[in-house]
Design brief:
The complex is a heterotrimer of chains A (about 300), B (about 425) and C (about 325). Chain A has about 300 residues and is mainly α. Chain A folds into two domains: about 70 residues, no CATH class; about 210 residues, MetI-like fold (Orthogonal Bundle), CATH 1.10.3720.10. Chain A is built from 15 helices and no strands. The radius of gyration of chain A is 26 Å and the shape is flat. The two termini of chain A are about 20 Å apart. With about 425 residues, chain B is of the alpha/beta class. Chain B is built from 18 helices and twelve strands. In chain B, strands 1, 2, 3, 6, 11 and 12 form a six-stranded mixed β-sheet that branches. In chain B, β4 and β5 form a beta hairpin. Chain C is about 75% helix and about 0% strand. In chain C, α3 packs across α14 and α5 packs antiparallel against α11. Classes of the chains: A mainly alpha (about 300), B alpha/beta (about 425), C mainly alpha (about 325). The interface between A and C is large, with 126 and 122 residues.
Chain lengths: ~300, ~425, ~325
């Protein structure tokens, strides 16, 4: 795959002030303008919420959030103090971790195993199973609650007996289709030469998996971890159905949602609650950013 | 290989740790026991309900595990079908629990659990029969509220020389008088996310009761009177005269009505200059008045007059609603709790904190926190015809269609006939 | 040991965080060990099952079993009488506006608009941010909406779409912008003409981060030398995108696109939280939820099966892509 057009070598000085250079500089500037501009537009809604979270509720219906950015400011910390002083915040924060971390680790690991098999092993029914997996992405979760909950109750997988184990298993089941679909795609994209040279070197399946496939798929695995973590951290309904909302087991989403009365009393607290809840997923995202680097594959296959 | 062996040993030991951790508790409750309660009350209401429960736990030692969720219907259905219902549930709509009663999932309350002599002493017969399905008692009310209160700012009325109307015609005349003065007389707001439309449905049901009487009202929410029946249609068109052609009697017209959340519905009363002069809403709205417009004082800045009678033959008709408890699993602890929740003392705890009324006949007025609430109670106890919220009594599918119909009506009043036919279609299947 | 004590135990959390991966790794290592005990010939036929076994078991129990149960229930009414296809007839009858057709129409809107917009924006952000040094902060800002729960998303867009009558100071961002352009304010979510689009915009805003992250990961997988070589050869950025980046990312674009299409079919949270299907915005998943809420299990099951069946065209497309990639190997 070669790109045509040859470059005529020009002396360095001429190249510096040539139309090409200006064109390049211009398109560079355009790039920056585009990226920064669109990003600024993109964050306007979130900015609106952030500013609103510092405003008293009486102002919400009277003036737009941008008016708070000019005098008179009328800022208040009431919304945040309301959230922070809510009962059970610490326990539900811990509960959210207790739910989310295992429910992220388990599906990602199991999916990695399965995705490897789907992409690099041959077995009976492989294509059918894989397609069925993709199809299962479409299952609406509400349809699964009753049969699974019934089973859990019968075998005693309830919060009183085993804590969050039931919820971990459920989230694993729900999260596997997407996880496998995503990882299989990335695993499949690895060059075949890699596996051939490994085979020649006498590496076994485990070595190939742990020493070749996993390290090369770090961006994909990092993305998956982010999404699975996110989805479970922000989940409300599944936790509510399988563990309920008593203070000992309620995750953060339930506790924050319960800040607001059934007649919307206290809805202004949701503005602060949103940011409070956002902190952890963002930290996870930030810390996984360094895995999104290029060049892992570069130079991995020498002639 | 060494690595493999070491790995497996480590793995097995971790497995053992996990098993121990997982099977950690498994112990049964020792001591007085516990009760699970499921309800929609969250935020400040939850604090009030826990205040109600505190003396109970102090006296009996029974732990009350309260779970709050706004998706009450879904969670209740799921857990009942899966076989682990809470012992006690409080649903804002009797129809949700009615379906469960017919399916045999509720525990009957009047053959041993509740002292019926005491109940008939405390409650007006209407409140008890409301809790009965096929003659058996399945739910008992602890708190009540009244609808059909028209809120206004007395200062604004005095400033313009408006008089508080006592008849329907008087109210219509006042409406026209205000219009003549160049302001929209009414504030209405229907937005409420999943429940959008319910404030308008309150208007319609209040008019049905006051205009056509309790017999028509009852047969209507029972699904026996059609929506296209002239009596029901007349209620809608009467509301249409309040809204005005193209909703012109209401501040902001159709757009504002549809787009504004009910908590902000009454704010227009207090703007300077006022955007409207009257707002129909239940008594909880006073908390929102005060939050949204700081510095308001009850009585001098806001007051109410009861919605006047549309039809003098049905004078004194008012719509109200309440919070009822039902039992889904019969345990000694659950029995004690539900008995506790019917006592005037328990009910007084929340009433004193504000936001609820007691349906108890002999409730001490001094328990009510302010004059406005006392005036509201007088409306309830003085009502010669007091009927429960029709929307809450209808099956949920019917009620949801009712709310949607309100939104369609506000958007285009000329579509009333097709809206009503649509409601009839839902009525035909919803009551099965 | 009582429950709260158990859960408040930080050592437990640590044990779980460490123990779970070790257990799973132990499983695969132990499994491989067992496979090694077999003769060489039978290893390739047994080994895959060790690797996919747990996944198939989980998926089989948590997804396949309930779906089969739902399909079974869809042929019965709420009192458990067999009614054949009448639940489906009830949902699919009354074309064009009866039954589930409004929901189906809205799902189609979502399917097309949502998928296209998220893909386009996601691809654009992935490619553009790759070329700037401040890539990480920008990506975090674009990604932020994904970290927000659906409830918070609803609150944010409530503020965006808020309406005050003309002449009054606007409280909603969009209406304020309209105002500065001397346009009259409009209602958005409550107007059946634009409600769907308004919800889809909110949904797109929330989901672009998803597409961007995955597409970015795929982009990083393209060897740098390939791109450098193309640049040295004098190809413009647009050409590089068209001829190098896009084709190499195609499999991932298919994956993201498929996932988005399926999410669009399953769209529930945004619609439920913001309108509950009012103003003509109902979608299949919401419709099913409403039916389940009132115990209408038969019709609800029918809607669920319709939803799952609607995925089949997507699966066929995926199968073709899959085969094409296999053939190229």
């Amino acid at each position: 795959m070669t790109i045509a057009s040859e470059r005529i070598a020009t002396p360095a000085v001429e190249r510096r002030f040539s139309p090409e250079w200006l064109g390049q500089g211009f398109s560079k500037a355009l790039l920056h303008v585009a990226v920064i501009g669109i990003t600024l537009v993109w964050i306007v809604p979130t900015l609106g919420l952030l500013v609103s979270s510092f405003r008293p509720v009486s102002e919400f219906a009277n003036s737009g959030w941008w008016t708070a950015l000019s005098p008179p400011f009328k800022f208040t910390l009431d919304n945040y103090s309301g959230v922070l002083s809510s009962s059970n915040l610490g326990q539900s924060f811990f509960n959210s971790f207790m739910i989310t971390i295992p429910a992220t680790v388990i599906p990602v690991t199991i999916a990695a195993f399965a995705a490897y098999a789907f992409s690099w092993m041959k077995f009976w029914g492989r294509d059918i199973f894989f397609l069925a997996l993709v199809g299962l992405l479409a299952v609406p979760l509400q349809a699964t609650f009753v049969p699974i909950l019934k089973f859990f109750v019968q075998v005693g997988l309830t919060p009183e007996h085993v804590g969050f184990v039931g919820l971990w298993l459920v989230h694993t089941g729900y999260g596997l289709p997407f996880a496998i679909y995503l990882l299989a795609n990335f695993f499949r994209a690895l060059p075949t030469d890699l596996f051939e040279s490994a085979e020649i070197d006498g590496a076994g399946t485990l070595t190939v998996f742990f020493r070749i496939v996993l390290p090369l798929s770090v961006p994909a695995i990092a993305s998956l971890v982010i999404f699975q973590f996110l989805w479970i951290w922000n989940d409300y309904l599944v936790a509510l159905v399988y563990v309920g909302s008593t203070p000992e087991v309620a995750p953060l989403t339930v506790t924050l949602a319960n800040l607001v009365g059934s007649l919307s009393q206290g809805y202004q607290l949701l503005t602060a609650a949103a940011f409070f809840s956002m902190i952890v997923p963002l930290i996870v995202f930030f810390s996984l950013q360094r895995y999104f680097v290029r060049g892992i594959l570069a130079g991995s296959v020498k002639g | 290989m060494m690595g493999l062996k070491v790995g497996s040993i480590r793995a097995l030991s971790m497995l053992a740790v996990m098993a121990v951790v997982a099977c950690g508790t498994g112990g049964t409750n020792s001591g007085p026991g516990s009760v699970h309660v499921l309800a929609v009350w969250s935020g400040p209401e939850q604090a009030s309900f826990q205040a109600v429960l505190a003396p109970f736990t102090a006296q009996t030692g029974i732990k009350v595990l309260y779970e709050s969720t706004r998706d009450l219907d879904t969670i209740l259905q799921t857990r009942v079908q899966a076989g682990n219902p809470p012992e006690i549930a409080a649903a804002p709509s009797p129809s949700t629990l009615s379906k469960l009663a017919t399916a045999g999932k509720l525990v009957q309350l009047d053959n041993g659990i509740l002292d019926m002599t005491k109940m008939t002493d405390q409650y007006a017969p209407g409140w008890i029969s409301l809790g009965k399905i096929n003659g058996k008692l399945y739910q008992i009310f602890s708190w009540a509220s009244v609808k059909g209160l028209i809120w206004y700012d007395p200062k604004n009325f005095t400033a313009k020389g408006y008089q508080v109307p006592t008849t329907w015609q008087g109210m219509v005349d006042l409406q026209n008088q205000i219009k003549g003065g160049g302001t929209t007389p009414w504030c209405v707001a229907t937005e409420s996310q999943a429940a959008s439309g319910w404030p308008g449905s309150d208007w319609v049901k209040e008019i049905v009761l006051s205009q056509s009487g309790p017999t028509v009202y009852d047969s209507w929410w029972n699904g026996k009177t059609k929506w296209t029946d002239p009596a029901i249609k007349q209620a809608w068109t009467t509301w249409g005269t309040i809204l005005g052609p193209n909703d012109s009697n209401v501040y902001g017209g159709k757009n504002y009505i549809l787009a504004t959340n009910f908590v902000n519905g009454g704010d227009g009363l207090f703007k300077k200059p006022p955007k409207c002069y009257m707002h129909n809403q239940a008594s909880f709205i006073t908390a929102n008045f005060v939050t949204n417009t700081p510095g308001l004082v009850a009585g001098s800045d806001f007051q109410f007059f009861p919605l006047p009678d549309v039809n003098p033959s049905f004078a004194g008709a008012h719509v109200g609603s309440g919070d009822a408890f039902s039992m889904l699993k019969d345990t000694p602890q659950a029995r004690k709790l539900i008995q506790y929740l019917t006592t005037p003392d328990a009910q007084a705890i929340w009433v004193k904190r504000g936001g609820k009324l007691s349906p108890n006949k002999a409730f001490d007025l001094a328990n009510y926190p302010d004059d406005i609430t006392r005036a509201v109670v007088k409306v309830m106890t003085g009502a010669s015809i007091f009927d429960f919220d029709a929307g809450d009594l209808m099956p949920v599918a019917m009620r949801d269609a009712y709310w949607k119909a309100v939104l369609s009506f506000v958007a285009d009043q000329t579509k009333l006939d097709s809206i009503l036919t649509g409601l009839d279609a839902v009525q035909a299947t919803a009551y099965k | 040991m009582d429950l709260s004590q158990l859960l408040a135990d930080v050592p437990t959390l640590v044990a779980v965080i460490v123990g779970v991966p070790v257990v799973l790794a132990g499983y695969i290592v132990g499994g491989e060990y067992l496979v090694r005990l077999l003769p060489d010939k039978s290893r390739p036929s047994v080994r895959p099952w060790i690797w996919v076994g747990p996944a198939l078991a989980f998926v089989g129990f948590f997804l396949v079993y309930p779906v089969l149960g739902t399909a079974y229930k869809s042929f019965f009414d709420n009192q458990d009488n067999f009614v054949g296809l009448s639940n489906y007839a009830g949902q699919l009858g009354g074309f064009p506006s009866g039954g589930a057709w409004i929901a189906i129409r809205n799902n189609l809107y979502w399917l097309i608009l949502f998928t296209l917009l998220v893909l386009i924006f996601g691809l654009m952000f992935a490619v553009l941010t790759d070329r700037v040094p401040y890539e990480s902060p920008v990506k975090s800002l674009i990604f932020m909406p994904m970290a927000i729960s659906f409830v918070a998303l609803a609150v944010i867009w409530k503020f965006m779409y808020s309406y005050q009558p003309p002449g009054e100071p606007q409280t909603g961002t969009i209406n304020a912008i309209l105002g500065s352009l001397h346009q009259a304010p409009k209602i958005w979510i409550q107007d059946p003409n634009v409600a769907n689009q308004a919800l889809i915009v909110a949904g797109v805003w929330g989901f672009v981060g998803f597409a961007m992250v995955i597409l970015s990961a795929a982009l990083k997988g393209i060897p740098g030398d390939l791109l450098e070589a193309a640049r040295v050869d004098g190809a413009g950025e647009l050409t590089i995108f068209r001829r190098v980046i896009f084709p190499l990312m195609m499999p991932t674009i298919v994956v993201v696109g498929t996932t988005l299409v399926i999410f669009a079919l399953k769209a529930f949270d945004i619609v439920y939280v913001m309108t509950n299907g009012n103003y003509d915005t109902d979608v299949l998943a919401n419709r099913m939820f409403q039916l389940l809420k009132v115990g209408n299990n038969g019709p609800a099951s029918a809607v669920a099966i319709i939803l799952v069946a609607a995925v089949i065209p997507v699966l066929i497309f995926n199968l073709r892509q899959f085969r094409a990639v296999e053939a190229r190997r």
